[in-house]
Design brief:
alpha/beta, TIM Barrel, eight-stranded parallel beta barrel, 12 helices, binds phosphoenolpyruvate
């Protein structure tokens, strides 16, 4: 059985001192012995604050992006080596906000995926269709292009070290959630694509997260679906109680 992953994406929120306050309150709730994997993805500037408090807990810390090059004249970029040194274990790649506002391409996501794997970071590759794409019935094509683009040239062993996050763009930060059935249908489609790209054993083991207005009231129903292996949570991960409740929802299903 695939372990569930409950992951928070803080986007451009929380200063270092706000991060400290969150982490102290979060830690006090009890972070040991959960059945699910837990991950938080703060801004670069808050990573040290988070590690200083959560570094001795099982919580994984991820960056929200990184550069595809090792080092050098890439002003403002952050390298994989820097993230490893800062004690990140994962990195989000290709989030729809990066694609929409910063012109992230499938080729760029692919380069970054390879770079993350080279440094032992787990890439969480985000894919998903817009409302217009869903309505014009090109959703499957869009998802296939994004998925296979991100995984281009990777071996099955490398693909096994990635996590996929399906995030319908129309559901991110909008309060609109895909119904568990809608999400399951796309997750199944993604797993079938992964099976074609790799093999059944690899596709069976890969974690596919759902993201898009996930919250305590819908976490249980989403996580109960066969091919939904966790959640990537924006807004609700900024509230300690909400995020913790979603971890508990996962615990119940993983026990
Ligand atoms: C996200 O940022 O990946 C996300 C899913 O955001 P929200 O939960 O706020 O929709």
């Amino acid at each position: 059985m695939r372990k569930l992953l409950i992951a928070g994406n803080w986007k451009m929120n929380q200063t270092a001192s706000q991060t400290e306050a969150f982490c102290l309150e979060f830690k006090a709730k009890g972070l040991q012995g959960h059945k699910v994997d837990i991950l938080l993805s703060p801004s670069f500037t808050s990573i040290p604050a988070m590690i200083s408090i959560l570094g001795d807990t099982p919580v994984h810390v991820a960056a929200q992006d990184m550069c595809y090059e090792d080092r050098g004249a890439y002003t403002a970029a952050v390298s994989a080596e820097m993230l490893v040194d800062a004690k990140c274990s994962h990195v989000l790649l290709g989030h729809s906000e990066r694609r929409q506002y910063f012109h992230e391409s499938d080729e760029g996501v692919n380069l970054k995926t390879k770079q993350a794997l080279k440094y032992g970071l787990t890439p969480i590759i985000c894919i998903g269709e817009t409302k217009e794409q869903r309505e014009s019935n090109i959703m499957e094509e869009v998802i296939k292009t994004q998925l296979l683009g991100a995984l281009a040239d990777l071996s099955n062993e490398e693909i096994l070290k990635t996590v996929i996050a399906y995030e319908p763009v129309w559901a991110i930060g909008t309060g609109l959630t895909a119904t568990p059935e809608q999400a399951q249908e796309v997750h199944r489609f993604i797993r079938t694509l992964l099976e074609e790209r790799t093999d059944m054993e690899t596709a069976d083991q890969l974690q596919i997260l759902y993201g898009g207005s996930a919250k305590p009231t819908n976490a249980d129903a989403l996580l109960s679906e066969n091919d939904i292996d966790g959640l990537l949570i924006g807004g609700a991960s900024l509230k300690v109680n909400d995020f913790f409740q979603m971890i508990e929802a996962g615990d119940k299903l993983n026990s």
